[in-house]
Amino acid sequence: DTKTILNFGSGPAKLPKPVLIQAQKELLDYNGLGISILEMSHRTSDFNQIINSAESLLRELLSIPANYKVLFMQGGGTGQFSAVALNLIGLKEDRCADYIVTGTWSAGAAKEAEKHGKVNVVHPKMDRYTGIPDSSSWSLNPSASYVYFCCNETVHGIEFNFIPDTKDVILVSDMSSNFLSRPVDVSKFGLIFAGAQKNVGCAGVTIVIVREDLLGKALKECPTILDYNVQAKNNSLHNTPPTYSIYIVKLVLEWIKNNGGTDAMNKLSKQKSSMIYDIINNSNGFYSCPIDVSCRSRMNIPFRIGNMEGDEALEREFLEGASKLGMISLKGHRSVGGVRASLYNAVTVEETQALATYMKEFLHKHL
Ligand code: PMP
């Protein structure tokens, strides 16, 4: 074993160690077949077993109702920004969609949707993303084809802890960065998507959960590979899927199940994030998190050091010191600066404790 690394990256992010060990064990010879999954046709019964068990594990972990399809797609979260609009904006004749824009990723999704229909941002534009505008101030359009929101803004660290009430309008959510970190009532959504590379696997596959009755209404110009109906009819095997990424997803889902499922992940995520927020809150302003307390993310914790705007020299010193201790990928997103600790499912309480201890020591050194 080499130097112990504590990976607080925002994605692609840490994978559970047992998953990597299992993948390593099976890399050269999968299931006694004498070949690697990397070399195996997606039309084999062995691969079918992998994709089918990934689906059934996911159905079990999230209690996905039978009238929802589970798809494994390519193109990442960004591909879904387009796919959502291409498949759903035509559900109603007006081709309008409502977007709740609380950060970089929902803003990106709204921008893509504008290529295919009319986009209404339901609240006044924010100068800085620091919270979720109060839902009483949203102007929702009852004839919108859907309402879209990003459940956890990875860059800003803003997380919804409620499901927006959209009356009868279909609700769509990007759960890329908090997927499977807590239970979710799928029946409240028309569609949920999540890129795998944060909480459920490695880059290359994006999971889509979509209600059956919304299929088959894609715009004419929708590329075949982004058409949910085509993917649903072909068990996500219309063309070559990202086979190895789907296999890793299967291993991570098994790991989540063996570790108590989404309830356990939820409990742990609250425990881990509180350890870091407590230090921020009790640091007399030395550490500051700009996000409203009511919607601070359990997954991504952005903070500044020294003052609200961030003392860049101090932040550099913090990151260098962390790196010497093996704590990596703590740098904030280039658009917001500062520090960001991502605490996805695979990050342990012990690793979080190590970061908390370092933050306390750094604080005392600079008091
Ligand atoms: N949505 C969210 C919430 C994200 O965090 C990201 C990526 N960090 C994306 C979408 C875009 O995903 P991708 O890079 O897979 O296109």
Automatic annotation (TrEMBL):
Pathway noted in the entry: Amino-acid biosynthesis; L-serine biosynthesis; L-serine from 3-phospho-D-glycerate: step 2/3
GO cellular component: cytoplasm
A GO BP entry: L-serine biosynthetic process
Domain Aminotransferase class V: 5-355
Keyword Glycoprotein carried by entry: no
EC numbers on record: 2.6.1.52
Catalysed transformations (reactions): 4-(phosphooxy)-L-threonine + 2-oxoglutarate = (R)-3-hydroxy-2-oxo-4-phosphooxybutanoate + L-glutamate; O-phospho-L-serine + 2-oxoglutarate = 3-phosphooxypyruvate + L-glutamate
Transferase recorded as keyword: yes
Enzyme class: transferase
PROSITE patterns: AA_TRANSFER_CLASS_5 (PS00595)
GO molecular function: O-phospho-L-serine:2-oxoglutarate aminotransferase activity; pyridoxal phosphate binding
Top-rank lineage group of the source organism: Eukaryota
Gene3D superfamilies assigned: Aspartate Aminotransferase, domain 1 (3.90.1150.10), Type I PLP-dependent aspartate aminotransferase-like (Major domain) (3.40.640.10)
Pfam families per the UniProt record, alphabetical: Aminotran_5
Keywords attached to this entry: Amino-acid biosynthesis, Aminotransferase, Pyridoxal phosphate, Serine biosynthesis, Transferase
Cofactor: pyridoxal 5'-phosphate
Family affiliation: Belongs to the class-V pyridoxal-phosphate-dependent aminotransferase family. SerC subfamily.
Protein name from the UniProt record: Phosphoserine aminotransferase
Organism listed in the record: Hemibagrus wyckioides
